[in-house]
What we know:
By secondary structure, the protein is of the alpha/beta class. The chain is built from 8 helices and 15 strands. Helix 5 packs across helix 6.
Amino acid sequence: MPGKKEMEIPVYLFMGFLESGKTSFIQDTLEEDYFNDGQRTLLFACEEGMEEYDEELLKRTNTTIVYVEEEEDFNRDFLISKVLQYYPDRVIVEYNGMWSVERMLTQMDNTPLLVFQTIVLVNGETFDLYMNNMRSLAVEMYKIAEMVIINRCTPEMPRATWRRSIKAVNRRVQVLFESADDDDMGEEDDTLPYDVEGDEIHLEDEDYGIWFVDIMERPEIYDGKTMVMKTRVFKSIRLPKGCFVPGRHAMTCCADDIQFIGYLCHTNHAKSSTIKSLKNKMWVNLTAEVRIEYNKEYGDKGPVLYAKRVEAAEPPEEELVYF
Length: 323
């Protein structure tokens, strides 16, 4: 068997829960000129939904389909055997949303298969259902996706909230929305629960997560503005002198995946006696100017806070941030 470096086969990975539109999307993809070019395509279908593959389309696009019924069957030996049997130029995987993404990627190791593109399909009608009841499975998909397409959307759906939920676990992913008629719905409603028009922005306790994601995505809106918010203190000897990270603990996936999220804050010019007594995990009311600038701690440009005032505070009613 040729080594991986000698024989790399690009894999187009499509993930999502049942009835999320994976099969229809894959069939549309096969019709595209860049796929319908005569090259051999091997399609692993790991889930059978209401939509069935068009046999004529598969024949016309030189696509061979292999059904995988059990998660355990999708293993390294199986993948290698099918590659040797069909010798495809590329592979499409329609992966079962109830199966482990980590296991799937592990089974592809030491095979010729190399993931080239990852797309997650989501049914807007069931987005909240799966995020509320199968959050860890959904987040596992979002974490490795390059693109998330949420279809069957209506104008009333909270698209901006969904987008922030996904961006919270994968800031680089592209999130697109389609209506029930498969039309591009354009930009989602980015209405925020706080006012960004003035020079000073006051955050309610429950809005910290929304702000954290939004400033990451649209830093220009906050550049030069003053933030007033309640945060927790994180200090470390690894941080520059006179700096700490104000932030909150957030649950992005499940109870086992709680992370502290925040941005670097300088305190050199803050007018507050609390600065001298800042301790890890203490709660503070922070007033700070936002500057979007390069910072070596980030390795890139990003939000950097410059404290104007820091005062000890009582914990918020809900200490954990949810997305």
